[in-house]
Amino acid sequence: MQKLHAAEPEAVAVESPRFTGIIYTADHAGKWSGKVKGHLPQVTVDAGKVTVFTDHSMSEEHFIVRHTVVSAAGEVLGEKTFSPKEAKAQSEFVLPEGASGTFYATSFCNKHDFWLTTFTI
Ligand SMILES: [Fe+2]
Hints:
By secondary structure, this protein is mostly beta strands. Helix content is 3%, strand content 39%. Strands 4-3-6-7 form a four-stranded antiparallel sheet, with no helix packed on it. The model has no long low-confidence stretch (mean pLDDT 91). The structure holds fe (ii) ion.
């Protein structure tokens, strides 16, 4: 894997069959292969801000519990825990100035486990 930034450790290839059943991704959805659209975190980056959206309904019985954004170095840049009463699973985080490289966005469903989108800036 190509090193993206001199000060950044090599990004870990977590989007791999090795982690299927632990970390679900677009390409490795395992037993949740029919659940990708409603669980994969969608990432938009604009003007130093990351928006993470999970296209999932929110109810007491079934909802998105949490989002995080993490750098390749493992620094948690943002985290949000949702209430099932919230209208949608969307979170916004401000990036450190000059942030670049590989990042991870995560979304956790109370019934359908832990999902990951890897993105670069
Ligand atoms: Fe779900």
